[in-house]
């Protein structure tokens, strides 16, 4: 028996195993057919192996021939490789980008910038190199900057609409809860302007200019809307403009606003009430009237027990947590140790101290003598584990507590955007590019959250960050076939880690 390559009129080559007996040729087995020379050679070798297995014999000369033939096939393959892409993240993220609906924008530049931001956040100039080296995408940095100068005015509204429509879809067509919080984004510069100003920095970068970012997310942590404010803006004045704009644009009716105590002041409560909005806010229980504080401190401290009191048309709900009490004590002890180390000499001027944090335990006399007040510490201990909530809803106290605790989703949003996506520090200086940078990061976070949801649906027990790290090691080989002048591609899943995310690579999301 031997292997025959038979050319057909169509240009297809059939590879067959032939048996010659008494001068007659008979087709024993057809191995396959192809118009590609590389594949034909592979089929030929497969036919040779079939004969060996069928006859149950090995021929040392045939083995030597096969080894040589295999080497030639592989060398031929290598000589026609056009490119090797390290594009695992691109293959996954572009599918997720499309599943959210952002492909409707018809904006490849945004798609590339979002994919790069989630794959390897870099400067815009370095992003150009990354896109070319890893994905073979050509995007000039000057085009990126021109694009950013017009992105905010041309796409932001539609981007937020797509994000909201998608969130409604995955949440059963109901937004329900609106979680709001703010953070600060600092700049690597000493220069300020009308937008970038110094203020209270949540990153501890008080000497650097910043902007304030207000973010609105739904339950589950899906981003809905955002707005940028002057860096010196008091955070309590940022919530109402975003909420009112969002509610008007997307015609929301039945919803509850949830925000922490940093946004709870009389003006905000009055505005929320006058607008007819339902809300759950963190209460500043230590700032209540003496009568209310006495009531709070008289309550039985038991886990899971809530007490409430009517105050000017709203409900003040107070709960206790032994876990929170331990945390309060730990934080206070840690703060006092810092004070003891900082002021161990017992002398300091008023110019070198503020009343933030645990400095409230200090007493200053004659501008030089400093002591730590044990009386103030004991007073503070009485509040350990207590937490209050202000609401105008009729929800049961436990449900108010649970919905308020949902604020962790927005804390997680800031963690991801500042960490994985590297929203800050910023190196842009014009308002247009600052807005554009935040818009790109907003879309990137939406894609991140959607991938997180998809992983749960597919039963892939990995975090988004771990999936992206695995995907960064996946390559795609492109081979050009000389005779047909076509390109064949093959994405290589070579390890068990690669196989663990195969569903994201090979199948639609």
Automatic annotation (TrEMBL):
A molecular function GO annotation: transposase activity
Superkingdom of source: Bacteria
InterPro entries from the UniProt entry: IS1634_transpos, RNaseH-like_sf, Transposase_11
Signal peptide bounds: none
GO BP annotation list: DNA transposition
Domain Transposase IS4-like intervals: 179-444
Pfam families in UniProt: DDE_Tnp_1 (PF01609)
The name this protein goes by in its record: IS1634 family transposase
